[in-house]
């Protein structure tokens, strides 16, 4: 007893006099690390990692993990020394010294809890068990308990650190130097010196170092680092590219818009690193249980001590789940956040991933979420002897210098039909409610019904009735006249995303009972889309603030609501929902209000996201079982079998080892390939 109490007093004295940043403590760590390297024949790390390319690939721990690993090694050494002290006389004093040293951080945590937070927490409770082990001479048990405490803390730190490094390594290393155009010459400069609006020259094999816009050339871009999708995307002038993506082929000039910490990839990395700090709901629930059990268990231990003795009382204390829940839950959550990231799913808050499995109602925004934002030409209506190719040719002539979505849709259709058309001088344009273009001897006019009426051009009744009928279904009509005579109309509509029907069917199979569309669009097109997708309800003509009211109404009915929409325009509803998912993609990540962002801007990962959430739920429940089960065994050992302190700790260690192995062996949920482009077009009717 005297030896045990003396060890505790020495340990507390050392904790007060030797903080971790004291010169003596630092020197002790240096000496012990040198000794470990000598015993294990490990080479010291190079002073400059850049001088050792192999060292760059090795795992380099953070300072906090280094210190925790040092104390873990000290407690392991203590355990080994005390275990053989009866056979090696010198091992006893060395083991006791290592125990005193390794106990310091634990005592500092207990002191902070008792004096600063004014409460008895798990650390205080387990210190009581250690005191009982020491006063009864169970030094090996006390050393094993200390080792498990340090090992658990090291496990969590290493899991977080590995997750940080793994998430960072999802992004490619940026080059130190790049080629830019200055004064008409192509020169090599440091990346840090690149200014906004400067043009960077990139060839196949180059990593794009900035966010910017292509001003010249065409290239195949691999965006897997951002979206998780390995498919090559062809991009040309006017299209955005992002840092950390890869030029697979081609040559482009990119005008720099954002670099360094302002790039999208860096913002994504920061969000991911912040998400590591969140505690899962299961962990919070487990810690709440642990906190609620701590005081009753402490007072019960005091009451049981004179009845069952110090050994059984320490076994009783070891039934507490506090330390185990702090280890298992973070490791499970971190693994699944990393799993999501590898599949192009940016999880800003790990709790959203956990709550997704509880969702029983999903609200979809319509435009830009279920349908493409841009419209496509779906039908061409011809009158007065005009054929489809001729009508599209006239329309393309008129719209060729316009940039609005309808003009772009007409020009896309002309390219698809391989219709050629001449360039028109700007002086021949007249823009009002429509466009008037002079092409040779012909006057081409393109516009709405109102435009034709203003130009006194008669509209055939059959076209007028068709326009009225189709407009109720959400379709847009653009009329075309040549030399004052209507030749026909182009019908456009926003196409449903190719993957939507498959996603909705998959969500039904996964048990989602209520799905609805929420849209600011008219009743007709919203109803038609809801009927096509088999939605349970739809809400049309809805303002942004009303979307949040619909979410609240469903929550009042007892539903757990997920809102899927635009991460910026739907911000009010996204904040109100229990889980919020954005399809806005990577470009607006900094402003996106959603908790989860589908990085490639498509819905085909919704089912995968649900699968990852299901896997997280299963593994969190499994981890809770591994936390509770050894506690039940120890209670049985307290009152029935009469475990020794060492036996109870071995029970905890065994379950911890099995639990760690179960968590580590969890298979990754892998994304399915996105629909092929030709299949997507067939499905969407393009």
Automatic annotation (TrEMBL):
UniProt GO cellular component terms: endomembrane system; plasma membrane
Any one GO BP annotation for this protein: copper ion homeostasis
Acidic residues: compositionally biased ranges: 675-686
SUPFAM superfamilies for the chain: Calcium ATPase, transduction domain A, HAD-like
The UniProt record lists the keyword Membrane: yes
Region ranges (Disordered): 666-686
Domain P-type ATPase A: 175-270
Major localization listed first in the record, in broad terms: membrane
Keywords: ATP-binding, Cell membrane, Membrane, Metal-binding, Nucleotide-binding, Translocase, Transmembrane, Transmembrane helix
Matches recorded under Pfam families: E1-E2_ATPase, Hydrolase
GO molecular function list: ATP binding; ATP hydrolysis activity; copper ion binding; P-type divalent copper transporter activity
InterPro entries tied to this protein: ATPase_P-typ_cyto_dom_N (IPR023299), ATPase_P-typ_P_site (IPR018303), ATPase_P-typ_transduc_dom_A_sf (IPR008250), ATPase_P-type_domA (IPR059000), HAD-like_sf (IPR036412), HAD_sf (IPR023214), P-typ_ATPase_IB (IPR027256), P_typ_ATPase (IPR001757)
Subcellular localization(s) per the UniProt record: Cell membrane; Endomembrane system
Bilayer disposition of the protein: Multi-pass membrane protein
Domain of life: Bacteria
Family statement drawn from the similarity comment of this UniProt entry: Belongs to the cation transport ATPase (P-type) (TC 3.A.3) family. Type IB subfamily.
Entry protein name: Cu2+-exporting ATPase
């Amino acid at each position: 007893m005297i030896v045990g109490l003396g060890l505790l007093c020495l340990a507390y004295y050392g904790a007060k006099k030797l903080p971790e940043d004291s010169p003596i403590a630092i020197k002790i760590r240096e000496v012990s690390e040198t000794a470990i390297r000598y015993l294990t024949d490990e080479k010291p790390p190079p002073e400059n990692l850049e001088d050792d390319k192999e060292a760059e690939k090795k795992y380099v721990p953070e300072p906090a993990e280094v210190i925790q690993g040092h104390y873990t090694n000290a407690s392991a050494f203590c355990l080994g020394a005390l275990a053989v002290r009866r056979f090696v006389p010198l091992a006893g004093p060395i083991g006791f010294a290592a125990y005193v040293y390794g106990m310091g951080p634990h005592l500092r945590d207990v002191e902070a809890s008792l004096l600063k937070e004014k409460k008895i927490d798990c650390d205080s409770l387990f210190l009581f068990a250690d005191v009982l082990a020491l006063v009864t001479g169970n030094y090996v048990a006390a050393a094993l308990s200390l080792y498990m405490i340090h090992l658990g803390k090291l496990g969590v730190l290493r899991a977080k650190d590995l997750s940080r490094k793994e998430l960072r390594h999802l992004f490619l290393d940026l080059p130190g130097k790049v080629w830019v155009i200055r004064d008409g010459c192509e020169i090599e400069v440091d990346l840090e010196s690149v200014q906004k609006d400067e043009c960077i020259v990139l060839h196949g094999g180059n990593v794009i170092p900035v966010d910017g816009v292509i001003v010249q050339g065409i290239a195949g871009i691999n965006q897997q680092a951002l979206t998780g999708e390995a498919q090559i995307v062809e991009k040309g002038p006017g299209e955005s590219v992002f840092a950390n993506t890869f030029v697979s082929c081609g040559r482009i000039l990119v005008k720099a818009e954002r670099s360094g910490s302002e790039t999208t990839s860096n913002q994504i990395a920061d969000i991911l690193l912040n998400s590591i700090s969140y505690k899962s709901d299961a962990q919070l629930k487990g810690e709440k249980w642990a906190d609620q059990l701590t005081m009753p268990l402490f007072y019960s231990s005091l009451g049981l001590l004179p009845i069952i003795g110090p050994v059984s009382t320490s076994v009783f204390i070891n039934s507490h789940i506090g330390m185990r829940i702090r280890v298992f839950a973070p490791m499970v959550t971190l693994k699944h956040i990393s799993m999501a990231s590898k599949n192009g799913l940016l999880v800003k808050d790990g709790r959203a991933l956990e709550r997704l499995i509880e969702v029983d109602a999903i609200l979809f925004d319509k435009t830009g979420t279920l349908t493409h934002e841009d419209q496509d030409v779906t039908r061409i209506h011809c009158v007065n002897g005009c054929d489809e190719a001729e009508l599209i040719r006239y329309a393309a002539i008129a719209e060729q210098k316009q940039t609005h979505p309808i003009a772009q849709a007409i020009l896309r259709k002309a390219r698809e039909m391989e219709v050629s058309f001449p360039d028109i001088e700007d002086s021949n344009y007249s823009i009002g409610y429509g466009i008037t273009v002079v092409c040779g001897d012909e006057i081409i006019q393109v516009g709405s019904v109102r435009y034709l009426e203003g130009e006194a051009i008669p509209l055939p009744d059959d076209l007028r009735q068709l326009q009225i009928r189709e407009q109720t279904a959400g379709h847009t009509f653009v009329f075309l006249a040549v030399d004052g005579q209507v030749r026909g109309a182009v019908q456009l509509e926003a196409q449903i995303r190719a993957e939507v029907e498959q996603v909705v069917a998959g969500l039904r199979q996964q048990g989602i009972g209520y799905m609805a569309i929420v849209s600011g669009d008219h009743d007709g097109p919203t109803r038609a889309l809801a009927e096509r997708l088999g939605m349970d309800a739809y809400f049309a003509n809805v303002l942004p603030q009303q979307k949040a009211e619909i979410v609240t109404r469903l929550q009042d009915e007892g539903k757990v609501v997920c809102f899927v929409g635009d991460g910026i325009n739907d911000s009010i509803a996204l904040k109100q929902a229990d889980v919020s998912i954005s399809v806005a993609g990577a470009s607006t990540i900094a402003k996106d209000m959603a908790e989860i962002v589908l990085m490639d801007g498509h819905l085909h990962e919704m089912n995968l996201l649900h699968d990852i959430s299901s896997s997280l739920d299963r593994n969190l429940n499994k981890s809770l079982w591994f936390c509770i089960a050894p506690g039940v065994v120890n209670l049985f050992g307290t009152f029935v079998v009469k475990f020794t302190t060492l036996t109870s700790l071995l029970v905890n260690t065994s379950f911890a080892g099995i639990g760690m192995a179960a968590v580590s062996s969890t298979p990754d949920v892998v994304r399915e390939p996105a629909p092929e482009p030709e299949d997507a077009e067939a499905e969407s009717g393009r």
